[in-house]
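Hi team,

Below is the intake form for DNA repair protein RecO from Moheibacter lacus. Please confirm the fields before the structure is written into the shared record.

FORM ID: S-0412
PROTEIN: DNA repair protein RecO
ORGANISM: Moheibacter lacus
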Amino acid sequence: MLIKTPAIVLSAIKYGDSGKIIKFFTLNHGLTSCISKSIYAKKNKTNSLLIPFNLVELVYDEKPNQNLHFLKEINSTTHFNSIHLQPEKTTIVLFLTEILNAVLKEEEQNFALFDFLENSIRAFDQKNSGYADFHLWFLLNLTQFLGFYPHLKKGFSYFDLNNGISTQEIPHEIYISDSDLFHFEKLISLDFHDQSQSQFSQNQRKSILSTLLKYYELHISDFRQPKSLEILNQVFS
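The structure came back. Fields below:
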């Protein structure tokens, strides 16, 4: 059965001599993997569209009880101005898509998650400045759809990373406090769409990112530090 749906490109890996396996997050069917053959042929424009965070419309042949489907057609739906051209933004895109590939498991529609991803990507592309905090804001707000958004309350001295709650008593396990807690609270109150300049210093961003990755590790089984983290730190050092 042929399926037509808007989609977001998450990854594309080489398959054989002339093909690729592409992972999409689609509007109508959630996480979907497709195979495309003869992708490197001169007249085949598919390869140029398989860039992480690209917004596309695709047609694929869905095979019942199979996890890999044949890609029949793909077209771009958005012309981006910066996220695939500016080195800093490209690095953030690669980092975030690596995390999305690790944490997204849904093979069914999730309109709210798709809207969040699409709107976030568009906002990121449109920002000419003040986007250095985007990956922090994105990772924090992604937790709403993964089921462990922080229940943070101001006025409390500690934030328990294991249970995702604020507390006045020192937690028995992993927690943040003092300046780390202050910056985490600041991140939660941040609205990236209205932000005209970055809110955190380089060292603060590294500290917040370390907290977020630890938070993901505690709440997602088999979550590992992204390989692209080192590149991200180098680009923003």
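SUMMARY LINE: The beta strands are 2-15, 19-26, 30-36, 55-61, 68-76, 158-160, 165-167, 175-177.

Thanks, M.
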